[in-house]
Design brief:
By secondary structure, this protein is an alpha/beta fold. The protein has a single domain, classed as P-loop containing nucleotide triphosphate hydrolases (Rossmann fold, 3-Layer(aba) Sandwich). Helices cover about 50% and strands about 15% of the residues. The structure holds 2'-deoxycytidine-5'-monophosphate (DC).
């Protein structure tokens, strides 16, 4: 085991990965790395540059020059594109679908995975995404697959979005199901459970219950106590 462990959390949209991985990172004083935010930033950059999300070649060229970085602001991790904070701009239903579309292309994945490895290689990190335990760090010290039934995942997204976006629950459920299909049937790095991953169904669990379950199996280095982690 590394002195500073790498924790990989994968799973479908709405399974609770973001809330749980943020909380786990806080409890362990590890860095939180939201790999989905990077695909979202890529989709946003493409939209702004007029590159269609289906244009794998164009996206690959764009990714070569894409300056994606994370910046800590108090309790928050903000994502920047060429130093512009795009953390809010990437959280729209439109960009959610765009992120799923751009992530299909091998050149995009190669660029993002290379960046993620660089950001996480020193350890002391919680990565969340779709392939963090299968492709980015298959040798991660702890791997989890966080899941929940589709109706509950859609309900969580619906509650997040209902005020500003005015979508019906049915519409959100259809989007969640469509993204599930897109993310798990694509040719490159489809969403699947990593070998050796612990499966957690969050359908009826609270965030704290999921985090506690993870902490039970998390290999913390000798002498390190969890619980007093600073953000
Ligand atoms: O976790 P999220 O909803 O922010 O991810 C947005 C999209 O990015 C998701 O639909 C698929 C893609 N993604 C990916 O392909 N690989 C990752 N490691 C993370 C996200």
């Amino acid at each position: 085991m590394r002195e500073r462990p790498i924790v990989a959390i994968d799973g479908p949209s709405g399974a609770g990965k973001t809330t749980v991985s943020k909380r786990l990172a806080k409890r362990t004083s590890f860095t939180w790395l939201d790999t989905g935010a990077m695909y979202r930033a890529c989709a946003l950059a493409a939209q702004r540059a007029g590159i269609p999300w289906v244009d794998g070649k164009g996206l690959g060229q764009m990714c070569a020059d894409l300056a994606i970085a994370f910046r800590r602001e108090g309790d928050e991790m903000r994502i920047t594109l060429s130093d512009e904070d795009v953390s809010d701009a990437i959280r729209t239903p439109d960009i959610s679908m765009g992120a799923s579309e751009v992530s299909i292309h091998a050149p995009v994945r190669e660029a993002m995975v290379a960046l993620q490895r660089k950001m996480g290689e020193k350890g002391g990190v919680v990565l969340e995404g779709r392939d963090t335990g299968t492709v980015v760090f298959p040798d991660a010290d702890a791997k989890f697959f966080l899941d929940a039934v589709a109706a509950v995942r859609a309900l969580r997204r619906y509650r997040e979005w209902e005020e500003e976006k005015g979508k019906t629950y049915e519409e959100v459920l259809q989007e969640v199901l469509q993204r599930d299909i897109q993310d798990s049937t694509r040719r490159h790095s489809p969403l699947r459970m990593a070998e050796g991953a612990v499966y957690i169904d969050s359908t009826t669990l609270t965030v704290e219950e999921v985090v506690e379950e993870m902490l039970r199996v998390l290999p913390l280095p000798a002498g390190r106590t969890e619980g007093g982690g600073k953000p």
